[in-house]
Specification:
- This protein is 50% helix and 13% strand.
- The strands form three sheets. A four-stranded antiparallel beta sheet has the order 1-2-6-5, covered by helices on one side. Strands 3-4 form a two-stranded antiparallel sheet.
- α4 packs antiparallel against α8 and α8 packs antiparallel against α9.
- The chain is globular, with a radius of gyration of 21 Å.
- The structure holds flavin-adenine dinucleotide (FAD).
Amino acid sequence: MDFQLNDEQRLFRDTLRDFVDKEIVPVARDWEQSGRYPTEIVEGMKQLGLFGLAVPEEFGGLAADTVSFALTFEEISRGWMGIAGILGSHSVSCFMLARHGTEDQKARYLPDLATGKRRTGIALTEPGAGTDLQGIRTAARKEGDEYVINGTKMWITNARYADPLPVLVKTDPTASPAHKGMSILLVEAGTPGFEVTQDIGKLGYKGTESCEVVLTDVRVPASQLLGGIEGRGMQQALSSLETGRINIAARSVGIAQRAYDEALNYARERTAFGQAIGEFQAVQMRLAEIAVRLQAARLMTYWAASRMDDGVRMDTESGMAKIFASEQALACATDAMRIHGGYGYSTEFEVERLYRDAPLMSIGEGTNDVLRGVVAKALLAGKATIR
Ligand SMILES: Cc1cc2nc3c(=O)[nH]c(=O)nc-3n(C[C@H](O)[C@H](O)[C@H](O)COP(=O)(O)OP(=O)(O)OC[C@H]3O[C@@H](n4cnc5c(N)ncnc54)[C@H](O)[C@@H]3O)c2cc1C
């Protein structure tokens, strides 16, 4: 196992760090609290080519290796995790289109998705089904050369900007097992009957919208069926979540890094009883604990990412990294808050945002509890070896 970044990755990380320090860190607190959409940051990410992270070079993308992909989400989340959401579901969707799209679908969408001219997301979850995706109710019936979609999707990140939005549907609601009747349809913005009905209020993860989407008799041409063959939607969605888990693990590392940075500064600057609070052993214990958790999460995330670059199927490894790193982000944010005392509870300090953003990492791309089950089953079946 070799965890050294190569020169190219180091240079890429330095460019990202510079961008985050100049364009995100100075505005994150104000913009997050005011609910302002981070338009200028989106433009900056376009300039850096970040919307093309998961797009193959032949379509104008960066086709970044998975470690560089992780570095992107880590650095951006160090600045403001909500921004990573804008790029996260976009990248998952690009990855899915590049891997499973027909030649026509790839040629039509990927070049514009790579530049950010078009943006996208992914619509799987429904009011009554999140983990249990086979329980979705959104259905698409075939009428001539069209599909007619009806249903409601919930928590859809980037819903107001996605064009197209891949939507998981049942093309055969009677299929058994249910996943054999599930497909993904690419719905373009502005299609009649497609409506973003609300922005869901949330604890953190601000800067990007999470929406309820209602589809009422939405008609799309049959050519919008991802991959052109019905019944593959569940597998197409699940395979793209593999990178999604690396993305969440890396975001967790970014949150933990910021918690560490803020806690270290504060421990040096804040005085009590005539000395810096960092002189107190109790504060030192917490600081050391944050550093240990952060570095372990980072190594595990890079390890899982580098396994993917070796061409190995790595859902177990990415699941392990996502579980571990997200738990560390939560613990580090809480400890950094404690080190800040009362100011940790103030909206004037960065740590309260970290504390609100961290919990989502244990929910998104599979809850940690569900993933623990997935990892354990893979281990018991001998599909992954730990030694
Ligand atoms: C801010 C935000 C943004 C999101 N963005 C998107 C998006 O862009 N696109 C999208 O499609 N979805 C999105 N989601 C949805 C997210 O993926 C789901 O919330 C998540 O998959 C969990 O589903 P659920 O909320 O329905 O919880 P449920 O599946 O109802 O789970 C509830 C509880 O039951 C447990 N549980 C469920 N099944 C099992 C099981 N088999 N074994 C053990 N425990 C189980 C879970 O661990 C959890 O504790 C977003 C969610 C949030 C909060």
